Amino acid sequence: MDKITGLIDAPFTPFYENGEVNYGPIGKYASMLKKNGLKGVFINGSSGEGYMLTEDERMKLAEAWMAAAPEGFKVIVHVGSCCVKSSKMLAEHAEKIGAWGIGAMAPPFPKIGRIEELVKYIEEIAVGAPRLPFYYYHIPAFNGAYLPMVELLEAVDGRVPNFAGIKYTYESIYEYNQCRLYKNGKYDMLHGQDETILSSLAMGGARGGIGGTTNYNGRELVGIIEAWQAGDIETAREKQNFAQDVINVICHYRGNIVAGKRIMKLIGLDLGKNRTPFRNMTQDEEDAMKRELEAIHFFERCNKF
Amino acid sequence: MDKITGLIDAPFTPFYENGEVNYGPIGKYASMLKKNGLKGVFINGSSGEGYMLTEDERMKLAEAWMAAAPEGFKVIVHVGSCCVKSSKMLAEHAEKIGAWGIGAMAPPFPKIGRIEELVKYIEEIAVGAPRLPFYYYHIPAFNGAYLPMVELLEAVDGRVPNFAGIKYTYESIYEYNQCRLYKNGKYDMLHGQDETILSSLAMGGARGGIGGTTNYNGRELVGIIEAWQAGDIETAREKQNFAQDVINVICHYRGNIVAGKRIMKLIGLDLGKNRTPFRNMTQDEEDAMKRELEAIHFFERCNKF
Amino acid sequence: MDKITGLIDAPFTPFYENGEVNYGPIGKYASMLKKNGLKGVFINGSSGEGYMLTEDERMKLAEAWMAAAPEGFKVIVHVGSCCVKSSKMLAEHAEKIGAWGIGAMAPPFPKIGRIEELVKYIEEIAVGAPRLPFYYYHIPAFNGAYLPMVELLEAVDGRVPNFAGIKYTYESIYEYNQCRLYKNGKYDMLHGQDETILSSLAMGGARGGIGGTTNYNGRELVGIIEAWQAGDIETAREKQNFAQDVINVICHYRGNIVAGKRIMKLIGLDLGKNRTPFRNMTQDEEDAMKRELEAIHFFERCNKF
Amino acid sequence: MDKITGLIDAPFTPFYENGEVNYGPIGKYASMLKKNGLKGVFINGSSGEGYMLTEDERMKLAEAWMAAAPEGFKVIVHVGSCCVKSSKMLAEHAEKIGAWGIGAMAPPFPKIGRIEELVKYIEEIAVGAPRLPFYYYHIPAFNGAYLPMVELLEAVDGRVPNFAGIKYTYESIYEYNQCRLYKNGKYDMLHGQDETILSSLAMGGARGGIGGTTNYNGRELVGIIEAWQAGDIETAREKQNFAQDVINVICHYRGNIVAGKRIMKLIGLDLGKNRTPFRNMTQDEEDAMKRELEAIHFFERCNKF
């Protein structure tokens, strides 16, 4: 299978004030991402509050992103849920509407304790979209599935034909590299932590990744890869350090799902609130965050429309 | 609000061999539970694989249990999910079909880290069934919500009018007792660990609970309460020790959801498999478990039809 | 081996203002404990900051307690440490000075991950005091040794001749009971959580325990056992609830090691500070704690000199 | 303060068959390390089983390393323990015998939960050796001290005059980089994971580190730094991948403390066993490990005498 090069964005899901999904801004959203160098979107994932959406909302969002996606812009649909039957149905839907690929994280409940359980879960979902590449989304901090990823590759190899790779959102660049080395790079290892892109490039020869802060800081994150490929380590470091400055700010306000989504409003694309049980930022918090972002000159470097 | 006395059962969900829900056995199931002394059911919870079911399946199961419930047999519907919008809808449905009450555990994702988040989650669901008592299902081993329950009672008191109490499935009999003492027993504290019912009776003066092994060992578990109330501590202990013997066995085969469900087949009510990612027992495991159960004379003391 | 009946106290270690151990108060301390119904002491354990003491200090404390112990008052010396060689030496010393018994918790580093490791650790220590009963101190919250205790009993049985039982400081009254049932009560199961003594009496038929809040609340805790044995469940419950009231207070001030030690000053036996890294209470905190204790009429029911 | 450049080794502690410390091999050990490019040693740390040694053994080992250290070879003494009084005494001893520096990890018991507790612990130790640089050894997997390291730097800055930096043995290269950026590199950030040296060089501009597998694979690890500095990223990656191959092998046999120590025997420096509760490798395990190492041509690239 072809590997992804460049950065895919994990978009937020827009909501109306009354808490219902707002499909309106997606066209503008997709264009903006494309313009700032992103290669596609990984929708209905953690940044998109996918687990907090109904089945119906997830399908409508997938359709909206398909309708909005510019030429050559990949739409990957996260279909993971606690109910494997529902996930399989979402996979079938994704294939039917022409999505580029699908993905799923391990369910947070029941907690997956063994590779065998995870493979069976993946298998039953992936078979729903046999012509699409399937990406396992490894984010154990969210679901407790602290399992060895090389063993996962060994287990799916030869068993899940459309298994394409891993969105790797975990701190072990050691394991990331070991996965990349598996059968000389048989599987696509998408780095999934914007704060350490440079690390994946140096250690692992990464070519692609999926970002969450790419929603508003995509130009600089794309710039890290470009600088590295041009042999300009100093520029790559400067941009990586800037990306960490931005992430430092959102960490003061409950992270990307809450604070990152609010930054979208500050750069001109109001996406509304988060669903319960996320605690939405107050106006005071928004004001304070804005000042912190100004102090690092974020608004001069952020994504543009 | 009235408090529950006696034991409520958390039933398993029957599946066909092809993995679809089998609503057929529910009538027989309800009668059997009633006959063995259970006072009602807490459906679509962890024993019932509620999180592994689609919204539609959950509603149909609730309807099937309502149709099957004998006179005076309480049907409490677990409506918790990662999507609060879906949970509220399930609450509305439960009230519409005449369920006795509703309940919800904390969502496993996003992980609840603060009482404030949990209260908001509860509030948005409970409002969907304003005339039904709402029970919070505290089972932090399943969702990571290790929060102080006395603080939860303080937070819901005066804010969530139909909050009735807690199904307490956690080891701290200290905290259980503190909750029971809150405002002289304002809230209903349903003990939720069959291995320590006697403990809740002695320490906390418990009057009711919700069991998982009551599905097949309900007579003995009901007997613990009866013996205690009759002042017969020796009989209560013997039955509690027997209940632990049974639980020791299921712990050898991945616990109640997997092994307990299989015991139902052994006592005459085949409920089929578990959904992925649960690992179903092999025939060899079933045979071995049967021998272990015979060794403790389980089949002489188990629930009868 | 004989089993312990009644409650053993885990005493605090007195310090001078300059941080050195103060052996002075031990005589008065021992007399007071005896007078209030305690049957002995478990010294140099967690309440005694044993791990925060030098080898030399631990031996001198053992000698001081031996010198102070009234007739028939048991002195059990906790000899556990990260260095098994040091622990064995402390065991030899305990036997040499005539201590009644020894004990050790699992070392916090390296973290014990297997029963086999724990048994070897116990074995190498216990052999240093072959004529004394050895108690394993199970307190996994302090050292991460979340191991199955029935398996420990199976592993030491026939291998560690002087293994006497377990000081069980963990919430699973289920496991506690299973250990008690092992070979019809072969090993001595000392309950180790003052907040749930009644639970161990009802469920497990416990006869003894080791307390930390017995230092200042021993009369009431002894009273729980007496009331239970007299068949007076209401009095037992009232005293247990009072014990929980007291524990609620110390939990507001960093628990027994810090707050409990300060209570000793308030009842007339100033034992000084805790060693770093414990954070000692401020005067304001002490004042606030005193008010909380007065509100529950603690000073009318506490230990007397 | 000057920063460390190059790699410092964390040596194992030699034991006789009877379990006593064997000071004999230290001279040969030090020469070998120097010859293979190491710049010094960090003794009595986790690789050296420092916590499993008596105070007396720790001091004698420090003296033996001082006597053996070649010209310009740094001896840093790990003095951390659960007893801050003992640690301070070890710090005084280290300064007295002319050690180059000292270090301490957070105590595993009591578990440190706040920066304030950690700073006080560090302060009381560091004052024992006021003329030596103090390194905090951050290895939370061993002691549960998952604390934010930038906050530690802020807290010690201006308060602990001889605080020099952090030996950072944790996976967050993001946090590592943030620490390095603190006040333009005020503190020395020693990378402490041999599997990701390249990552620290690329992301953080690291100049030095402390290794555990440097004991036997030091030439290749030093080679990563040299290749990076020469701009030869391909060689750096090849050597880093080889280092991961070696680490993959030791992970099959309980890690560096157990398996790494046994490798020393295989390359010609038998250091004996580990202390209980470590489980020593069997002969079969040793043979199997040797075959795995041969398969990756380890013995052609390992450290030489």
TrEMBL record, chains A, B, C, D:
<keyword id="KW-0963">Cytoplasm</keyword>
<feature type="active site" description="Schiff-base intermediate with substrate">
    <location>
        <position position="167"/>
    </location>
</feature>
<feature type="active site" description="Proton donor/acceptor">
    <location>
        <position position="137"/>
    </location>
</feature>
<dbReference type="Pfam" id="PF00701">
    <property type="entry name" value="DHDPS"/>
</dbReference>
<dbReference type="InterPro" id="IPR002220">
    <property type="entry name" value="DapA-like"/>
</dbReference>
<dbReference type="InterPro" id="IPR013785">
    <property type="entry name" value="Aldolase_TIM"/>
</dbReference>
<feature type="binding site">
    <location>
        <position position="210"/>
    </location>
    <ligand>
        <name>pyruvate</name>
    </ligand>
</feature>
<protein>
    <submittedName>
        <fullName>Dihydrodipicolinate synthase family protein</fullName>
    </submittedName>
</protein>
<comment type="similarity">
    <text>Belongs to the DapA family.</text>
</comment>
<dbReference type="GO" id="GO:0005737">
    <property type="term" value="C:cytoplasm"/>
</dbReference>
<keyword id="KW-0119">Carbohydrate metabolism</keyword>
<dbReference type="GO" id="GO:0016829">
    <property type="term" value="F:lyase activity"/>
</dbReference>
<keyword id="KW-0456">Lyase</keyword>
